[in-house]
Amino acid sequence: MSPHLEDEEIKALFSSVDRNTVLGKRDFAIMKLALDTGLRWSDISVMKLTDIDWRKKEIHIVQKKTESNLLLPLTIGAGNAVADYILNAIPKCDSEYVFLRLRRPYDRLQSRSSAASIMQHYQSDSGFTHHAGDEKTFQAFCRTMGTNLLKSDVPLSTVSQILGHNSLESTKRYLSQHDEMLLFCCMDISIYATEKEGLK
After folding, report:
1. pLDDT (0 to 100) of residue 35
2. pLDDT digits (tens, 9 = 90+) for 142-151
3. How far are the Cα atoms of 6, 66, 122, 140 from residue 128, in angstroms, in the given order?
4. Half-sphere exposure (CA, 13 Å, Cβ side) for 118?
5. Closest to 100 in 3D by CA, of 18, 30, 53, 52
6. Range scoring the smallest mean pLDDT among 117-131, 132-146, 156-170
7. Given a cut of 50, is residue 186 above it in pLDDT?
8. What is the pLDDT of residue 196?
9. Is residue 2 in some structural domain?
């Protein structure tokens, strides 16, 4: 079973979100941001309003895992989702954080259980569920984004930096999720003579 999300799963997952509700607007923005940028929950949960440069369509954060500055493009899809949440759903308060609890006190979403709850809720509604060991957790958004970058021929070193990996070895496992890349990496044996043998 693939540890990243397939296109059908992504479509089903996002289609199950009721974007007419405050909860739906927030959760859709969180998931879309994770899918389009590869940001982990630890970075999304502490994202501040000032981290988003709307004019340049960029996100500036200090990545928690690596403690390094990271500049990411804000895609149209993620940007529209976050803007819809901020303009129409974010609780009216003085918090500097983007994603907040929807009940008082309006603190930022902190624990990993919040991310797990989001995934479990919409996975259930979308028709597929997370089983122990299948890796279809919130982190699957990050793995999916990394796989898609490799499919788009983005250099492995760039993917590694975006995903916050300390070494290329951590990123190389994404190659196993990309059949075309595996074929490219295979050794060409056409120069060797081969003989066809029948069954005995």
Report:
1. 96
2. 889 888 888 8
3. 12, 33, 9, 14
4. 29
5. 30
6. 156-170
7. no
8. 52
9. no
Establish if 175 belongs to a structural domain: yes
Residue 199 lies in a domain: no
Position 185 confidence tier, pLDDT thresholds 50, 70, 90: very low
Cα angle, residue 69 at apex, residues 73 and 155 outer, rounded to 5°: 55
Residue 89 contacts residue 20 (beta carbons within 8 Å): no
The pTM of the full predicted model, rounded to 2 decimals, is 0.80
Which helix (H) or strand (E) is 119 found in, with range?
helix 112-126
Cβ neighbours of residue 33 closer than 8 Å, sequence gap 6 or more:
39, 44, 78, 81, 82
Give the H or E element holding residue 58. Answer: strand 58-62
Q: Is the pLDDT at 189 greater than 80, yes or no?
A: no
Domain-embedded: residue 192: no
Contact (Cβ atoms closer than 8 angstroms) between residue 100 and residue 108: yes
Total structural domains within the chain: 1
The whole domain housing 66 covers 7-185
Instruction: Name the amino acid, one letter, at 58.
Output: E
Query: What is the rounded CA–CA span in Å between residue 73 and residue 113?
Result: 27
Structure tokens at 96: 């500097």
CATH of the domain at 124: 1.10.443.10
Residue 107, both tokens = 């603190």
Secondary structure element (H or E) that encloses residue 62, with its range = strand 58-62
